[in-house]
Structure formats: structure tokens, C-alpha cells
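**User:**
Everyone, produce one record:

**Assistant:**
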Amino acid sequence: MSETRWAPMLWGQEHYWFLYFDVPAYGADRDCVKITRTWRLDTDLPDDTVLAALSALVRRYESLRTNFLHDGTGTPVQAVRPPWEVTFAVRTEGDASDIPAVTERLAATAFDPARDRPVRFALISAPGQGAWVVATAVHSAIDGQSWMVLERAFHALLEADDQPFPAARQPREQAELDHSAGKARYRERMRAYWRDCYRTIPQGMFPDYRPAPVGHFGGHTPPSPYERVTLSSRRLAFAAERVAARRRIAPGVVYLAAFGVALSALSGNRRCVISMDTANRADPALTASVGCFFQPALVVFDTAAEDTSQALLTKVFRAVVAAQRYARYSSLEMTEERARAGHERGMNLRIGVTYNYFARTRPEHDPEVPHRDDASDSTEDFVVEKAPIDWQDNSADLYLAAETGDDGVVLSMHGHTSVTEADRIARALRAMGALIAGWADGTVAMDASVRSARDRLGFPRREFGPDWVLVDHSWVDTRACAARLAALTGVTSAAVFAERTADGEDRLVAYAAGPVTPAGLRAQLATGQVDQPSLVLPHRYVVCAQAPDEESREAWAMAPVAAEGDGLPPSPVPPRTSRERAMAAAVRACVPGHPADMATPYLPAGGRTALAPHVTDHLDAAGFTGIVPADLLGPLPLGAVAAKLTPTATARK
């Protein structure tokens, strides 16, 4: 093949491609998210032999020669380039101790996804002892399972194995299939699933202020804001398998159900929203494919205290099936769905909770199952200890990994210190283990309520004070919201209450006195989401002619009303400041027809996720910095985003 072949971007590629524009700190150079693996060669081989095998991989797997870029309309596409002959970016003599340094050298030069080859190779040789091939690739090109496929193929090529390679669909072919007319109904169902999730999930599982992500800035890495605790047990691995076998579900679902009980108790939310990794390779044609097919699935289920354990396990199983069914999706389009739902609901929707299940190997011998009248304890081998952070995702509030191996299972949970701490994590893990063990040995009856098991096993719980209300599936501190409202320009007095509508739903209602309007109140309050992203905006605003003598709900409801409404502006708000005019010009230049309404967020007003980097680039060229594309993808009105801009000395020509 001598020409570039074009195709829509594979949905699994979109997320990591977009992070190229969004991951860097403000003002930092852009770079791709990278993934690295090392392959061991037990014998000495000529460099030409190794290079020939690597070049054969490049010819066989299109993903190793694919660029990721915008086409002329701003649509993200993949461009499969002609095969190229591999050379070593780094070639050195050494041993395994040199792998970290070589890996760092491979990744030191930034990857440009639109122009650079998506993978680099290095060779570390130890004469007489073999060698190590180090490969670093952009994550849009390769996921974890791809490395296993590549390693098997690489060694087969070195060994001149005549066995044919298994048939595999290329990412380009899968993308064309996903975007085909034949998949239209699936795309509609998938979008409906995600839209329904976004319209019904809590603002965040943990209704607390979430500090900005902590990372590596200016050569200094601050202390991690996470604490991690592990529970190790041999018995627990078999207990989960016994429960799974009886219920005809996977062990991973058993751990997830127990996690749901812990999560609900820790957060105070009945509805659990969990991101769960999925390989998206159920189609046999993708088993041996090389590309980025991985995507998170969104699992949503309620852990009602009155549910039985049996009902909970069934509920979680069905939620997992639904989540995996719709786990092949456009992350760019779902970002738009989330922003629109958040705008309608007046909140910045965050997932913040992640779960992974890794079934490595299985212990060979099942420990004896204790009987109810046995003196032994099915939790006696639990080892709970604080552990160092081994992996960090700054978007997560709470993360659980369940990993089975030769010695049993390890439950590893880490949480952000703004929402929990090590002691509560340890107590949650012990209670989860005891719950699963109880399900297995019958000490926790399947027909008993989740509430009774939760209370008996000591799950740590979040309790809310009298000023907190559960509205639109989200916990809201009405006193804090009222304080923000009272601090707005023109407001002399304010209060916030939850009120029941004629349809029987609870809604947040804001009362205020002063020379203000509902639209002005909402617009000012929305800007507070810049420094308080967990802020939930009221659904209705009532401006009273004067404040009542008492602060009660009844007194405010009896006060004379000057104006009321949902606070949404009746017409677009034009730009007024130089920053707003620059923002409007950038948005209209990159998204023709966009109203650039300063009172409405970029996406709900008709923006596209894929074009957000063009907007920030346009602003940079016009002499304004201070935002990244993610600032355009949340609930902030364009005016609030524009206020974050900083003029630079000169505009770029």
C-alpha cells in the first residue's frame, strides 16, 4: 500500500486523542498519553533480525502506522499511512536496570498524533544474555490487550513460526462498521442509554468540594491527595466464586455489589454511578486485533436499604449487562450529552468512582468452608493494611480494584482525601469482605435486607445535617447555597429550600430580595461553579419585593413576589468585555452558526467537543491564554469561561 487510507476515528481512540489537547497544564507543551511495554529476548539476535520482525508488525497492524487528526470539517479521523521500516530510536548495551531510563528517553520527545509515527522502539542488549525491546506508543493506537497480541506475533516472527496469524479486524474497518447505516439503531439505543444515565445520576457520588487535580508541575510533584488500603484473603476469593456460581453471575459482579453497598454508605447516595473498564472485544474478529478498543462502561444501580441481598445481586448483574451492551460509544458525543444534561439540571456532572476486576489466576485448593456453628471464622485470614499509591487518576474520588491470583484475592481501594480517609477505607473493605463471606456461608441471608447487613457488619456511613436535602438524585447543602446567593450583587437577603412539585418531585427553589431578576441570579450563581464545581443550581428563582421577618420556608412563600422563573435567559446575552468579545470571535470562527451566548455553556449552545481545541488555539493566536479545552466542556457559561482568560503581550500572526 502506497497511499494513506482515511476512516472515521474509532470510538476507543477518541478519548486518548482528545487528551493530547487537554492534559497539559496551562501553558505546557502538548503530548499524547503514552503506554509502554518491554519484551524479553532470551538469545542474542542480530539487530537486523529484530528490526525485520518489528517492521513486519508495522506492515501487519494498521494501528502502528496510523495518525489521528481533524479533517477539513473539524471531524476527528484516522489516517492509515503506508508501511515504514523500523529503526531504533534508542540503541544501547545494558541490562534490565536500564529499562526505566530508556523508557523515559523514548517518551521524552512529545508525540504529535497528527504527524508522528504512533510507536517508537528501543533495544537494550546484554551480549551473551539476550536483550530487551522497549516499545512506547500513543494510547490512541494501542490498548492493554494489543500488547499481548503484538508480543505473541513478534516472537512468532523471530522464531519463523509458520502458523498463520489469527484473523483480525483492523481499527479502520471497525470504525467504518461502527459508523455504518447498519449500526444506526445501535447508535440510537446507545445514545438513549447514556442520555438517561446523565439525566438521573447524582451530581457526584460524593457531594463535596473537589480540589483541582494534583500532578507533576514545574518539576515538582506534590504529595498525593490519595490514601490506599488493601485487603488480602484466600478464603474471600472462593467465597465470591461460590456466590457467583449459585447466582449464575461472574465473580466480578459479586465484588461490585459489595462495593455498591460500601459506596452508598460512604457517600450517602442511594444511586451508585461507577465507571468500569471494558475491553470492547466481544466480537471474535477483534480478539487478535491491535488498536485502542478499550472504553469505560457506565454502571448505574440503586442500593436501596430495603432491598434483599438477592435483589441487589440481580440488580447489579443487570446493570453491568446494560452498561457493557452500550460500552461502545463516541466519548466526544457523550461529553456533549453530559454537558447538555448538566446544563438542564444546573450541575457539573462527575462520575468520580471507578471499578476494575482482574481475574489473573485462581488458587488451587479451596479452604474448608466453616459451618454456622463452627468456631472458625470465614474472615479470619483477612489482612488489611495501608499501602502506597500504585496508580493515580486525578479524576477519581474513589477507586476499587479486585484482583485474583495464586494466593487469593486482593481488594485495593484508594480514595481522595477530600471525600474519605484510610481508616474509613479499611473499615469499608472489612465490611465488604464480611458481606461476601456471609453470602457464601449463609451467615448473611440472601432474603435479609441490605440495611440489616450494612448495620451489622459496620459499613462506615455518611450522615447529612438538617440543612442538606436530596434533590434530583443529588445531596445539596441549602445553607451553603443560600450563603452564596446572599453574597451576589444586588441581593439583600436569600434562602434556599427543597419544595415538592405537583408531579411529586422535589426541586430546589431559591428566594431572594433585592433589585435582581431570576436570570441575573442564575447567571451570577453559575459563575460560582468556577471555584465550586460541586455547586448545584436551584431549579427555580423567586424574587420577593421584600424579605420576610422570619427565615422559614413558610415566611418566604408568603412574601410578595416581584418576579419568578427558571433563571434561563430569554434571549442570547451578547459579549460586553474584551475577553468576552475574544471568546465570541473564537467560537464563531471555529463553530460557524454558534450564537456565542455569554449566558450559555459552549456545548449546550451548539458547540462540538472535537472543535474545542480549535477555539483555544484561536484564542491563543488572538493573544489570550488561561484556559484549556476542558473549560469549554462543562457547565460554565461562556462569559464565566471568558473571565478566566489572560491577555498576552501580543497576538500570534
User: Anything to note?
Assistant: The first strand starts at residue 5 and ends at 8. The two ends are 39 Å apart (CA to CA). The chain has a mean pLDDT of 91. Residues 20 and 32 are 5 Å apart (CA to CA).
